[in-house]
Amino acid sequence: MAQYAILLYGKAPADASGLTPEEIEAHGRHGEDVERLGGSFVSAFALQPSTTAVSIRADGVTDGPFIDAKEVVAGGYVIEAPDLDTAIAIAKLNPAIQQGGGVEVRPCLG
Amino acid sequence: MNAVEQAVADAHRREWGLVLAATVRVARDLDLAEECVQEAYVAALTAWERDSIPRNPAAWLTTTAKRRAMDAIRREQAFKSKLPLLIEPDEEVEEMEEMEPVLEDPEGVVPDERLRLIFTCCHPALAQEAQVALTLRLVCGVSTADIAKAFLVSETTMAARMTRAKKKISTARIPYRVPAAAELPDRLRGVLGVIHLLFTTGHTAPSGAELVRSELVDRSLHLSRVLRDLMPDEREVWGLLALLLVTDARRATRSGADGRLLRLEEQDRSQWDRDAIAEAHELIVAGLRGGNPGRYVLQAAIASLYAEAPSYHETDWAQIVQLYDALLRVWPSPVVALNRTVPLAMVAGPEVALSELELLEAEPQLAGYRYLPAVKADLLRRLGRTEEAVEAYREALALTDNEAEREFLTGRIADPGRP
Fold first, then answer.
1. Is the peptide bond before A21 cis (omega within 30 degrees of 0)?
2. A107 interaction partners in chain B (CB closer than 8 Å)
3. Least confident residue range of B72-76, B280-284, B299-303
4. Which of A77, B49, B86, B198 could form a disulfide with A44 if both were Cys (CB 3.0 to 4.6 A apart)?
5. Domains, chain A, ranges and CATH?
């Protein structure tokens, strides 16, 4: 087994309060996909809109997300899965993909 | 070259992928497997000289390479393996094989693991250029130096690209297996795309003096034959093989004795490879049977109609346009829409074709695509709009680095009135 982070991206500022009840429910149901496809949850988090972000570099603290882009991180979760294909199969079912955004799969170190 | 050297060279060209794929199952590491297979080929030079050439060279090479891999793993285990291993969840590795004496099984059947290797090399998590390079190196056994040459990058760059890709396979745990049925159509499309790209790169090299890099063309033909043997029921695999065969059948006639690019209507049809065209025809007929043909079957059918016409002017343009319509339904691509304007001009006249082409000029995917101004120039020329034609030829010229194509376009600009 290995751990994969699945990062959710949405159109900036990725404000979850703009989601419809159906969309929120779809995210809730996605948890079942993880188990059904042979993975398991390690942890998960959903973020406030990117307008609330603060970024810190060596030269100081600035407001806003670390990278100024049209799409920003909206949340993410770490799963345990036997291989990349399983992680991709799970990530493909993430509702963010049908809601104008997308996801990125990154293997975790170690 | 003596008989043994010849046999080793043949086995290298034909069986490398088979031997490597089987060895990966034991080594569970692509680099180690490659090294062991390389050593097995070197060992074959002396062993075959001494003991005669085995009846089944692939089985001999596989057994030898696997034993080396097993020895290496045993040595490695003393230090505790530090590398993430390729994962292969389906079966246990054949531990017992180390007991098997190398020469007792000269005719043993080598289990064909090449599909796993092909699907791993063409995994969508890898950049397509890395997929192409890995497939050439691991499935076809082409040296890194030769791959670098074919893609016009330095050997160091190519080696680094391959190392990165192999590292990704192990750290991201890209599984060494054929994808499950649900994923197969998508993943197969990726594999076919890699083979097709290999062919088109070889067929019209994007730059350089030679129009065709025959090595790449031959490798892609070989790969699509291997794939057809390994997946005998996939119609799109037949389609790809047919497309490559029928396109390559014109290889000898695509440029004149002086290296000048010849247009389809100028090519000597008697020189086309009729066997290849006939083989493609069989595959296409079989592929069309059963309905809903896919992209490659349709592309092959179009190419085949061009190739089977007794002369350029007797080409069945109307049917070609129909096939393009079907192709656009399964593969809505602006490039396909552009190619459709060529037969359309023969059916409905250059004026109609030109207005369809002008609709495509806004397509971002066609921005900088050299065949758009080239087709436009030809339509304008046929409409007698010479000045605009010359301008479009110049535009096309600015977009190609292929010497043969440049020469053709320069000739057109110098003499746009020539039919």
1. no
2. 171-173
3. B72-76
4. A77
5. 2-107 (3.30.70.1060)
